[in-house]
Amino acid sequence: MARFDGRVGIITGGASGIGRATATCFAAEGGTAIIADLQDAKAAETVQEIEAAGGTARAYHLDVTSEAGWAGIVAFALSEFGRLDVLVNNAGIGDSEAIEVTSLETYQKVVAVTQTSVFLGEKAAAEALKASGHGAVVNVSSMFGIVGGFGTSPAYAAAKGAVRTLTKNTALGWATEGVRVNSVHPGFVDTPILGETDRELLVATTPVGRIGRPEEIAAVILFAASDDASFMTGSELVVDGGYTA
Ligand code: NAD
């Protein structure tokens, strides 16, 4: 029996990078992956790849900043599959502006997609996760939710820090409700979010001498989502090649 047999999970930002690797590995271990993203074509391509490998997946167009969108995706999971067991709040955006030049609009946009989305997702999924019997939430923060993030924008660092403490707050609130909530804090990982950032600079600041692969973060996300982590809640799992050590 595979770890996620019979379990249904929503993975936000599941069409790209870390989310895509998480959805793919979740489905490979028996789970039904609902890929929630704005990028419809990439989400559909991910579903095709999963199904070609014998897994089960669906694409769902979700803007993680929309409360109505969240109500819709939870209703979709329950009507299509009758349950929701795993929520991976992974969608996020970054920017690299210094505080002096960051507009309020940019700040609020980064916070909405990266932080408020976690609140909306947890709130919308709460009852379904409690009914699951093995409900698990994994919130993808960043190593810059732990340390200040030299060269990273204040909006991103503030949002990722809030994801860390929101995780702990919800974990305590649901500790006796059968739902575990943990955060994962990646270091530099080779995905489109890095944009034009000089990869050599990132390698040079990462103690292990390379940046991470999406699958290396997915493995930790799925550990936290699985019954292997049944006694773990409110924890922060740092996966950064030694950056914050
Ligand atoms: P990515 O750009 O490959 O994936 C992000 C996904 O989120 C994209 O598919 C995008 O369409 C989706 N998305 C963006 N806004 C959305 C919205 N409003 N609604 C729904 N989906 C939306 O980047 P990634 O590296 O895979 O990022 C995944 C998570 O990991 C993010 O939260 C990111 O902050 C975090 N992270 C990444 C790194 C890194 O170096 N790659 C490091 C630390 C943390």
From TrEMBL:
SUPFAM superfamilies: NAD(P)-binding Rossmann-fold domains (SSF51735). Pfam families: adh_short_C2 (PF13561). Keywords: Oxidoreductase. This is SDR family oxidoreductase. Gene3D superfamilies: NAD(P)-binding Rossmann-like Domain. Residues 7-191 form the Ketoreductase domain. The lineage of its organism: Bacteria, Bacillati, Actinomycetota, Actinomycetes, Micrococcales. Belongs to the short-chain dehydrogenases/reductases (SDR) family.
